[in-house]
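Re: [ENG-882] Designed sequences occasionally contain unexpected residues at chain ends

Forwarding the minimal case from QA. Structure tokens:
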């Protein structure tokens, strides 16, 4: 099956790009139509060490390298390359303040340099042409040689979101049939990597096409080490057989999944189909891994509407040790969230990481013994980051919550904690009333002096400090979220003396109530 189309050009000058900034590498790759100018980007690396590993594989004529990079910088890379491969020309990318580094690379054999702030397509092309003119093997070729332009590179540009020009007539010779579709083999969930590999999948898929269909052309490209995508060109009626072929492909492994998009008319639509359909199918399988064949109409299914997680409610329940309520609410939200395949996977995982982080902080603030939990939370973060399915992420959260509940239970078994919680809950529910230490003591049948001592022993704040904090927290919310006059807010949160309220508020928040409200409005 053909892997390229042919254009008139000299022998392609092979280039490797080395820069630790991915955006710079992507920008250079897509500045111009490199093949039409006689160049081909054959590899990219994020540091000098990776570049050295690429040289033997790609055999470049020119290396375009940044000067400042981690692990191995451009200066050391230049010295090693010119020592081992003197025929390779090196061009340096640098910033204004790096002249001494650039000078040292020239001493090692670099041919030219470009300042990054002045990097543009014309400058880059001129410098590359100058470097190419120094390479004898390129000069021996004439301008009438037929050069295969790699279709895989063209596909890469389209799926990366860049437009690229191509000869419609020559493309029609390569892909002669009226329709295209994309078929992806997803092996991300395979537990035993030795059980199956992409080469076997590709061979099996080609075999099925050859034996089952008559008019078909195939171009394979890989976007992930565990996902292989096939561009299939054929007649509409032939392409309708894809689901049947997918079922046969699944016989290779029960954890394999096949993704099939609807047919489309033009080669140039491949980028849209990959980004708007195949990538969403890959996300769909993260949430529904049991689905073995995914077609485009599956993406039209309407998932549940997700309500925003109320972190204030969750935090408030935690602060007042209403743990059952907090964890039940969290479980409800997780169930809802995990059924919505439209949620970006990164955002989904970030939610779980943030919840674990918040639970650790909240328990620590409540003076629970979270030392072991703190040590373990990073392993939970890693497991969530590496999880291949939504169910695996939820499992990590459940494991973490179980450990948190064990800590909570051990504290509840301590003498006095249950009684204290009843007192804290009572204050929380009645802070708008004219509460006093004596009144609360009478409510719980305590001696006031005993309650004061008991409170100080079992809580990090004294009675009055705790009551004032609860009232000022509520006052701050009213100042931000309501238009109630400040003179009335003090009464709303339990203070009969407005001037005393203002004094306590400023002590806790560092600003008077009026300054606080004004600042909050300015910051919105």
């Amino acid at each position: 099956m053909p892997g390229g189309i042919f254009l008139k050009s000299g022998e392609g000058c092979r280039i490797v790009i080395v820069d630790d900034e991915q955006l710079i590498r992507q920008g250079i790759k897509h500045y111009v139509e490199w093949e039409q100018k006689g160049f081909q980007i054959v590899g990219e690396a994020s540091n000098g060490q990776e570049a050295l590993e690429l040289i033997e594989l790609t055999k470049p004529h020119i290396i375009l390298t940044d000067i400042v990079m981690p692990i191995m910088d451009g200066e050391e890379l230049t010295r090693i390359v010119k020592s081992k491969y003197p025929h390779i020309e090196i061009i340096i990318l640098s910033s204004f303040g790096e002249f001494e580094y650039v000078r040292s690379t020239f001493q090692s054999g670099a041919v030219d340099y470009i300042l990054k702030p002045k990097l543009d397509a014309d400058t880059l092309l001129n410098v590359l042409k100058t470097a190419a003119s120094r390479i004898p093997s390129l000069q021996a070729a004439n301008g009438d040689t037929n050069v295969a332009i790699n279709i895989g590179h063209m596909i890469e540009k389209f799926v990366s979101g860049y437009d690229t020009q191509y000869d419609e007539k020559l493309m029609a010779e390569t892909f002669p049939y009226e329709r295209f579709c994309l078929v992806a083999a997803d092996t991300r969930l395979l537990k035993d990597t030795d059980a199956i590999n992409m080469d076997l999948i590709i061979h099996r898929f080609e075999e099925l096409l050859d034996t089952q269909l008559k008019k078909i052309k195939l171009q394979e490209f890989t976007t992930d080490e565990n996902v292989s995508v096939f561009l299939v060109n054929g007649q509409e009626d032939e392409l309708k057989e894809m689901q049947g072929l997918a079922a046969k492909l699944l016989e290779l492994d029960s954890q394999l999944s096949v993704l099939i998009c609807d047919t489309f008319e033009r080669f140039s639509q491949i980028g849209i189909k990959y980004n708007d359909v195949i990538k969403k199918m890959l996300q769909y399988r993260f949430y529904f891994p049991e689905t073995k064949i995914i077609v485009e109409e599956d993406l039209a299914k309407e998932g549940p509407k997700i309500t925003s997680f109320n972190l204030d409610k969750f935090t408030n329940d935690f602060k007042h040790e209403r743990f059952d309520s907090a964890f039940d609410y969290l479980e409800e939200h997780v169930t809802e969230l995990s059924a919505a395949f439209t949620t970006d996977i990164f955002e989904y995982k970030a939610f779980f990481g943030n919840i674990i982080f918040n639970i650790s902080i909240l328990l620590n603030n409540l003076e629970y013994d979270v030392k072991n939990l703190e040590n373990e939370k990073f392993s939970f973060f890693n497991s969530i980051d590496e999880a291949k399915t939504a169910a695996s992420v939820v499992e990590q959260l459940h494991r973490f919550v179980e450990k948190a509940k064990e800590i909570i239970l051990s504290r509840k078994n301590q003498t006095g904690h249950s009684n204290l919680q009843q007192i804290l809950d009572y204050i929380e529910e009645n802070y708008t009333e004219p509460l006093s230490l004596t009144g609360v003591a009478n409510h719980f049948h305590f001696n006031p002096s005993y309650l004061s001592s008991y409170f100080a022993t079992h809580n990090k704040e004294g009675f009055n400090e705790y009551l004032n904090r609860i009232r000022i927290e509520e006052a701050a919310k009213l100042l931000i979220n309501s238009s109630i006059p400040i003179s009335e807010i003090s009464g709303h949160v339990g203070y009969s003396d407005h001037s005393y309220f203002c004094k306590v508020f400023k002590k806790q928040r560092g600003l008077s109530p009026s300054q606080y409200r004004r600042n909050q409005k300015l910051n919105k």
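QA comment: On inspection the terminal residues look reasonable. The first helix runs from residue 22 to 29. Proposing we downgrade this to a documentation issue.
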